[in-house]
User: What shape does this take?
Amino acid sequence: MTRPVGILGAGLIGRAWAIVFARAGIDVHLHDAADEALERARDAIATSLDDLHQAGLIEDPERAMSRIRYDSDLASAMAGVGYVQECGPEDVETKRRIYSDLEAVVAKDTVLASSTSGIAASRFTDHLHHPGRCLVAHPVNPPYLIPLVEVVPAPATGQAAVASTMALMEQARQTPILVNKEVPGFVLNRLQGALLNEALRLFADGVCSAEDLDKTVKHGLGLRWSFMGPFETIDLNAPDGVVDYGNRYGPLYRDVDRERGDDDPWQTTTLAALDQQRRQQLPAQRLGERQAWRDRRLMALIAHQQSLTND
Amino acid sequence: MTRPVGILGAGLIGRAWAIVFARAGIDVHLHDAADEALERARDAIATSLDDLHQAGLIEDPERAMSRIRYDSDLASAMAGVGYVQECGPEDVETKRRIYSDLEAVVAKDTVLASSTSGIAASRFTDHLHHPGRCLVAHPVNPPYLIPLVEVVPAPATGQAAVASTMALMEQARQTPILVNKEVPGFVLNRLQGALLNEALRLFADGVCSAEDLDKTVKHGLGLRWSFMGPFETIDLNAPDGVVDYGNRYGPLYRDVDRERGDDDPWQTTTLAALDQQRRQQLPAQRLGERQAWRDRRLMALIAHQQSLTND
Assistant: This one.
């Protein structure tokens, strides 16, 4: 019997986490100090569960819905929970206050996990009586479609909190990875950033249009990366595996790395030029429609993957 | 009426190109000086066409097969072709000889395109009488499943050769992109290299296991990248598009880029450690079986994408 999961914050991420846990049969106590936020969350969750049902990704949306309790009182919301997924604002001082408040109301062994995408847990938990049960569990948006969760312990985090978070994520059908050090950007955004930085440099240098850079990934690299990682990809791309691959292509990648400029990829002029090309491909007023398309494509892809033998 | 396409070299890439063009209804003259290579190619092409048929990716494999002519004589193979896809060895001197030989037998307006993954066309065509019809058309392996083709003109390449190559690739249902400068690694491998370099550094620094780095891409970044590029992804990930995204996350990526070490990601010790983890996940004797799995997954993914409304 899994104890209920508490979620602090009923914004976009908090609502998505509620779906993740409820879908996996776990009771959810969703807390937000604002009653209106909880009401909006209830509607948004119902809509998302309906979308998932229509895409064949959840069998019984009503049952999942019934597992979510909405509570604007922190103490009663967090009573009896074994794990809290904090989805508060991305601000160190605010988080420090939130964790003090949480520590005052949860059981001594309750794990406190933050959804933060960029702030190390040590920065907002070092003032607590029991910082050993705190860590980061960073999702990708929306976590009910993209399963990766970065579990990032602080130096003070105990092994038990790490182990139970990894286990809970597996139970919730997510894919947790363990990030052993509190590096800036964790792992997913460092990998994304490396590719974006290079793409922006190629664009700024006039090597390729924005559209062609997107095509390179979606009709080239991204196909295999959607079911294999980059290491498995290169391991299978040389007759004798990764070392063989490194001998063949390492020199090229090393040269590319060395001769790469030190100019800032995120310059205002570069972003303005990128924006101009993007707005030609997609006018600003159609961004929302295209986001809905993206979500449908993502659901269709997940349904496709689930239809295959799980290997 | 498209003139036949000549393919020089009946190895892995030459055979795959033959499938691409024949599948699109274009006659193919496949040349290799070695008769045994042509015989092996015929068998391999028949097998691949059969696999594609079983995956629902080609309707009439016999018809495609019948469009491919095998010819070990260069002059008769290249008679009447409007375009040559060169798939010779990755060696500058060898390619220079090949292009001299080709120039002697093809029509004056025949485009000569190289499949090279790393050598700029200017390096093996500057001695020709008509270098203006030469360029690189670099495929991803196998091109009949992964449609991206990098079209990379040399400074001497004429606009007509670029335009007709782009048009031929579209006709062959590939996705050509235009690379405006002969940069090392072209575009696809520069993007792949940027991500690999960062992944290897995170692995070497003990931040993450090889398996968890692969999971980060296949259960995280790679899902959206398989149907959207990185720029479209960030454009849709902030309320007001790419500039808004840059204001929010640019500082993080800029910092990651600046504090990134200058150590060589492709060190022997790193590759040996990576190999050890990979061989625990997949013993060397199962590499072939896993490659077959990869090809099945790729075919299933392409069939899934084709089943969706083309948007």
About this structure: Strands of chain B lie at 5-8, 28-31, 68-71, 83-86, 111-114, 134-139, 148-153, 175-178.
